[in-house]
Amino acid sequence: MIRYATAGFVFCLCMCSAPAGWAQRTAAADVHLRKECRKAAQIIRLGRPESERGEAYALISNCGADGGAALADALAARRLTDRIAPLDSLTRPASELRDGRLFEAAFSVATDRTSSPVARVFALRVVFVTFYRGAVPTFEQFTGSDRSRGCLGEVLGLEGGLSDGSPVAPDAARRALELSRRTLADATEPALVRAAARCAYGGLRYHAGP
């Protein structure tokens, strides 16, 4: 009887300690991710070191509201630049992260005529992918200069890989659709911006949602 009781005790001890060990490993992983997210956010806001920007952009969509805030701050700070590659890298994570603060920053840049037309195009892309989730049109596709795959470009699989940050305003979808419609209809807008608005409007009419 003692032998069986001892074996039962050991079995129970192992099984009861397993959840605690799993919880400790999960907590450690969470701490590590938060640390890496803080580092990525700092790199994105500062834009340096350049050698680590790629890794930061690859990680930031997993960082929730903190990631969205970093992308929003960086986009607002770079609204005057007309360099396609840096703006593409900065805004591409929005295809995998839906965040209210990032949406509002993009909406602000997209409607600001003092921002560069290129920055406004990428801001419109952020506004668009907030609702057309998983789409990653290139600059050329979104502005209509590359029609080989249509203006929406590649669409990522929607099973996993997409995350949410801070809440998006309830009226954001309506505002996004109205912004694209209004910009498209305004003949005084730069041709690049109107072309991006045409693509955004075409997709948002059918795919904008909560």
What's the structural blueprint in terms of helices and strands?
Blueprint: H1 2-46, H2 53-60, H3 64-77, H4 84-91, E1 97-98, H5 100-111, H6 117-129, E2 135-136, H7 139-142, E3 154-155, E4 163-164, H8 172-185, H9 191-207
Parallel strand pairs: 1-4
Antiparallel strand pairs: 2-3
Helix pairs in contact: 1-2, 1-3, 3-5, 4-6, 5-6, 6-9, 8-9
Q: Whole-number average pLDDT?
A: 85
Topology pattern, helix = H, strand = E: HHHHEHHEHEEHH
Gap between N and C termini = 63 Å
- Helix fraction bin: 55-70%
Number of helices: 9
Report the sheet with the most strands, covering strand number, pairing sense and barrel closure. 2 strands, parallel
What would you say this structure looks like, in words?
It contains 9 helices and 4 strands. The protein has helices at 2-46, 53-60, 64-77, 84-91, 100-111, 117-129, 139-142, 172-185, 191-207, and strands spanning 97-98, 135-136, 154-155, 163-164. It is mainly alpha-helical and 210 residues long. The protein has one domain (38-207). A two-stranded parallel sheet has the order 1-4. Strands 2-3 form a two-stranded antiparallel ribbon. The radius of gyration is 22 Å and the shape is globular.
